[in-house]
Design goal:
The chain is an alpha+beta fold. It contains 8 helices and 8 strands, in the order βαβαβαββββαβαααα. Helix content is 44%, strand content 18%. It is elongated and about 55 Å long. It holds the Pfam family GerE. This is HTH luxR-type domain-containing protein.
Amino acid sequence: MEFVEVLSGRCDTLRRIDRFCETTKLVSGILSNGSRAGVCDPALLESMLFSPGRRRLVVDSRLAGGELVRHHEKARQTEIRVYGGVLRHMLVFDARYAVVPLDELSLHAGALVLRPPLVGPCGQFFGVLWSESRPLGGGPGRGACLKGRQRQVADLLVEGATDHQVANRLGLSSRTVRTIVSELHDRFGTTSRMALGFRLGRVTKRV
């Protein structure tokens, strides 16, 4: 099986995205309006908001207003966060496929379809952006101060300790450490150890 497939043009790309959306339980998408007004394809936005399954979207501040907010009120199972920096389109489907447009903001030039093992880094990158973004219409997100055991575990994870090493140093069971790590994933909205470590590093430096 080839790890990379090239899709030619907007129509082929949208058809493949729709097909993936219909068979995917979780879609993780990065969408941007960039510096050009209206550059986010309306058909792409509709697929991301109203397709079956659960969806998590990271969007830039330009896309976060107006039309997206109105659509979001009708879109169930869709979580949206806003990232303050520069973004480019990227979609990850159940960690099985990733779609990356050849043009950083448009579908007209076509796209690349990536398969494992190339999908993994895309999912990790999305996790980092997700943890660094704020909820649409909300405050600064989940990065509140850590206290007690969560703070102790977080400090050791940032140092690169494994769950087993954390358990030994804190006198906890491995099961307790895994539970705390799971709580940290939930708190920061991360799905990979890399994304969690990045997010914890930012938080522990500030506290």
